[in-house]
Amino acid sequence: MYLNNKDLYIEIVYSKAMGSLTNDAKIMLELLSKKCVKKMRYNNSDDKNDCYQTGVLDMFSNWHNFNEEKSENAFAYFTEVFKRGLARGYNEIIKKKGDLKVKMYSLDTANDGEAMHGF
Question: Percent of the chain having pLDDT more than 70?
Answer without folding.
Answer: 79
